Amino acid sequence: xxNSTTNDTLAKAxxxxxxxxxxxxxxxLNLRDSGLDVVVGVRxxxxxxxxxxxxxxxxxxxxxxxxxxxxxxxxxPDMVQAKLYKExxxxxxxxxxxxxxxxxxxxxxxxxxxxxxxxxxxxxPKGPGALVRTEYxxxxxxxxxxxxxQDVSGQAEAKAHAYANGIGxxxxxxxxxxxxxxxxxxxxGEQAVLxxxxxxxxxxxxxxxxxxxxxxxxAYYEVLHELKLIVDLFYEGGITRMLxxxxxxxxxxxxxxxxxxxxxxxxxxxxxxxxxxxxxxxxKNWIAExxxxxxxxxxxxxxxxxxxxxxxxxxxxxxxxxLHPDTAKPAEALKKAG
Length: 338
Ligand code: NAD
Ligand code: MG
What we know:
Distance between the termini: 53 Å
Number of helices: 19
Number of strands: 8
Strand order of the largest sheet: 3-2-1-4-5-6-7-8
Strand content: 5-15%
Bound molecules: nicotinamide-adenine-dinucleotide, magnesium ion
Largest sheet: 8 strands, mixed
């Protein structure tokens, strides 16, 4: 793939990466290895400060990092970005510089109203930071989506492409999107299917078996542990691959029982979830919850952590040493599990 022209767009640019977590660290390392000039902006005394410095970066407070930058990548948690923008970015970002996000939440829901003399773009790899880094190191990349929200320089698209190439995404595939599509589909996916849908499905399946008198240990294996085998098949080759690998009995059960669990009414409720995302209800509620100090969030989280499937899972996982690659001896994992 020839990316020389787009890469030239940022060849002489200084890039400030704000945040050095999952995405921030991977982007900063990949951009630097692509020959670009990177400064990391994090809070002095915070955990990321020393880490970025130890990995060879010039590190500065966010406001200082923004001052000299031609492109500012906002890679802090979404809920702190509005304050970060107000305090550190808006007063310091150069006219004509680019402000880049990896998730459109704050711009789309107007928590951040970017100055009208800067470019506003999005580059979001479709994978966690660790994969963005390891794929880059293997000479490959993670497919990434990109968007332009505001183009004052006439170069916004070229900057997005150059950045996506710099983190390795261009080696795989770049897909054009817009802030609305990225934000709404990302929220819908995690709520309806990935985090919300999948964990509720697993908990309900577990409860059904345990309430019917089956052992929780057996129920854990059937509805949680083995989900990985299925998800791995989805990931590698879609539903086609799953159907190739499961028994005829499992297939027949899938065909007749799957639609009894996720039926037209479930899909209607999915549409309700999507509508709340689209009309801003979810964002409004989430921001209010965050600003109130997360009272319900903490309650919901505690309930998940105390669910019986977590209690039995903790015990069973301690007996599966391959799940603890960081632990030298399985005995240590057992001890931790108590
Ligand atoms: P993270 O929680 O892993 O890292 C956040 C970083 O920001 C840390 O270095 C932290 O020290 C720093 N930070 C926290 N508060 C700060 C503040 N007030 N001022 C300055 N720095 C602060 O975050 P992440 O998961 O990498 O997410 C970053 C962005 O990338 C988000 O917009 C997220 O939606 C997006 N994104 C994440 C993923 C993913 O897989 N994690 C994938 C695609 C997009
Ligand atoms: Mg998401």
